[in-house]
Specification:
- The protein has three domains: 4-111, Tetrapyrrole methylase, N-terminal domain (Cobalt-precorrin-4 Transmethylase, domain 1); 114-218, Tetrapyrrole methylase, C-terminal domain (Methyltransferase, Cobalt-precorrin-4 Transmethylase, Domain 2, 2-Layer Sandwich); 229-271.
- 41% of the residues lie in helices and 17% in strands.
- It has helices at 19-27, 36-45, 64-73, 92-100, 113-120, 138-147, 164-175, 198-207, 229-241, 246-257, 261-271, and strands at 4-7, 30-33, 52-54, 76-79, 105-108, 128-133, 154-159, 179-184, 192-197, 214-218.
- The longest helix has 13 residues, at 229-241.
- The N and C termini lie far apart (59 Å).
């Protein structure tokens, strides 16, 4: 039985490949590559002579059975042009098929444009939502942004240079004038990270048309304004009058109003005596 290795490759600077990735690419029997020309540049840099076959968006289904059969008896590596296969790149279908067939699937981590941009964005990194590539059509793109308009976590997306201004304009209309970081050509010669509000970056890009590959990191939604105490008291009174247990009433009202549970509990006790919640 062979093993399918999911190998991360540099997102620009070829020096960012790991020692493990070099070893695996040398030892497998075949490399399935999104773009064989780009992959061969990487292989030549590190004197790797393993055979390469194409596996990209338009042949990933027709090539699936061949690669799966190959992996049943020999080790196979899958690589994309840059970053991790399967993350907004071909690979998901093959990985899923290999798992279903009971084959070992082993990740070989490498650089990620998404995480690299997030790390240097200056925006919160403890939690984030990855949106992949934003939809091409304006209506679809605005609907996609509307779905995450209330998301408190940082948003990360990819966008092409010729749609970047349109996408930021849609973001301004749907999300508001939030802080954003535009990471361009990460790890490459013309690497740049520009930070500011959405409107500031739109003005910059209109004056200096965008070039290269972009990762957008957008600030999450601001906290919702807290409901006044009168509303909290009203909701508590309605729930308790309906027979809702005090503990559940506090939890519901806290969630609905944004008030911490301890504050809701205090208001509950102020309005009605409970021995225990």
């Amino acid at each position: 039985m062979g093993t399918l290795y999911v190998v991360g490759t540099p997102i620009g600077n070829l020096e960012d490949i790991t020692l493990r990735a070099i070893r695996v690419l040398r030892e497998v029997a075949l490399i399935a590559a999104e773009d064989t020309r780009e992959t061969r540049k990487l292989l030549a840099r590190y004197d790797i002579t393993t055979p390469v076959t194409s596996y990209f968006e338009h042949n990933k289904l027709t090539k699936l059975d061949y690669l799966l059969d190959f992996a049943r008896t020999s080790d196979l590596a899958i690589v994309s042009d840059a970053g991790m296969p399967g993350i907004s790149d071909p690979g998901y279908e093959l990985i899923r098929a290999a798992i279903a067939a009971g084959l070992p699937v082993v990740p070989v981590p490498g650089p990620s444009a998404m995480l690299t941009a997030l790390a240097v964005s200056g925006l919160p990194t403890d939690q984030f939502v990855y949106l992949g590539f934003l939809p091409r059509r304006p209506g679809d793109r605005r609907r996609a942004l509307a779905e995450v308009a209330g998301e408190r976590r940082t948003l990360v997306a990819f966008e092409s240079p010729h749609r970047l201004v349109e996408s930021l304009t849609d973001a301004l209309a749907v999300l508001g004038d939030r802080r954003v970081a535009l990471a361009r050509e990460l790890t490459k010669v013309f690497e740049e990270v520009r930070r500011g509000t959405v409107s500031e970056l739109i003005r910059h890009l209109v004056a200096a048309p965008p070039r290269g590959e972009y990762t957008l990191v957008i600030e999450g939604a601001p906290p919702a304004p807290l409901a006044p105490e009168e509303e909290v008291e009203r909701r508590l009174a309605e729930l308790t009058a309906a027979g809702v247990p005090a503990k559940e009433a506090v939890a519901r009202v806290s969630l609905a109003t944004g008030r911490p549970r301890r504050e809701v509990y205090r208001l509950l006790l102020a309005g009605r005596k409970y021995d225990k919640i």
